Amino acid sequence: MMILWIILGVIGALILCVLVIAAFVKKDYAVERSIVVKSTNKDTFNFIRLIGNQDRFNKWSNLDPHMIKETVGTDGTVGFVSKWESNHKQVGHGEQEIKRVVEGERIESELRFIKPFSGIAQAYLTTQPTSENETLVTWGFTSTMKYPMNILLVIMNMEKMLGNDFEFGLNNLKKLVENES
Fold it and tell me: Hey, what domains does the chain have and what are their CATH numbers?
């Protein structure tokens, strides 16, 4: 019986230690990647502003060909919502809503994740002409992990994990836009 109490005490102390550490770990994280696309700023922006086109280049939409999609509103405009539901563990269930469009420059959206974990993130895609026929596209994402789940930020390199997925998506975007221009 004494051994059981010792084991429970050690487990309790470990849990308490994790909770104390989590109180001091950052909760916010951000990821951003860029690529130059050989296309005009206008054509590039008109491509990325549509969530339907984003689905063509982002990694997550390509992981599950059987994903259930539903949309509400007019794609490329503020208030448009794209919902997804997938049994694939990296895709899950959630929705993306366009929150702001700065014509020819920036599209901002809110991602609301429902499964496998709930959370909210802010995402953006920007375009900036680097020449008459080249455009710098930047894809960014910011989010927060609530206490005590923020302890995962100590062991998970979100910059690398999501950054690799953004690079994959941006390379797909580059191919699509350059082939369609």
Answer: 27-180 (3.30.530.20)
Q: Cα–Cα distance between 69 and 46 in angstroms, integer?
A: 22
Q: What is the pLDDT of residues 49-89, one digit of tens each?
A: 999 998 899 888 888 888 899 999 999 999 999 999 998 88
User: What contacts 8, CB < 8 A, 6 or more positions away?
Assistant: none
Q: Note whether 170 and 139 are within 8 A (CB).
A: yes
3-state secondary structure of 150: helix
List the one residue out of 36, 68, 69 whose CA is nearest residue 51. Answer: 69
At 4-42, the pLDDT tens digits run: 788 877 787 777 776 666 677 777 878 999 999 999 999
Residue 75's Cβ-count burial label (10 Å; 0-12, 13-18, 19+) is middle
Q: Is the pTM of this model over 0.90?
A: no
